[in-house]
Write a structure and sequence with these properties.
Number of helices: 5
Number of strands: 2
Strand content: 5-15%
Helix content: 55-70%
Distance between the termini: 28 Å
Order of helices and strands: HHHHEEH
Shape: globular
Length: 117
């Protein structure tokens, strides 16, 4: 992987690591546009200021668009979610292959992590 590719991957992961970024993308996965209020309810627990910041970042990244019907994924955003399904499949295989006695990490997921399918 080139330095340019590494930088692009780093930028993408930095964006996705931002609080509520993945949850906002996930909330838009069905392809139907959502108003700000509906998106806020779908994401859950996010303040309007934080959601505004995330939406701005996701729009600038070309993953989310805003139209007269509300917020929706761009084709690039939909492609990203399809590719993240591969990560979910990998994670399931990886978790199944770990020894039962292996210590669990301390990473806290929100109570109902989304299924990528």
């Amino acid at each position: 992987m080139s330095t340019k590719d590494n930088a692009a991957a780093h930028q993408l992961f930095s964006l996705l690591e931002s609080r509520y970024a993945l949850r906002a993308l996930w909330a838009l996965r069905d392809g139907h546009a959502q108003t700000f209020r509906l998106l806020q309810d779908s994401v859950g627990g996010v303040t309007p200021n934080t959601l505004n910041t995330r939406i701005k970042e996701l729009r600038e990244a070309g993953l989310v668009r805003h139209g007269s019907d509300g917020y929706a994924l761009t084709p690039t955003g939909a492609d990203l979610l399809r590719r993240l399904a591969d990560v979910q499949a990998f994670a399931a295989r990886w978790a199944a292959s770990r020894p039962a006695a292996a210590p669990q990490d301390s990473f806290h997921h929100h109570k109902d992590p989304p299924s990528w399918h």
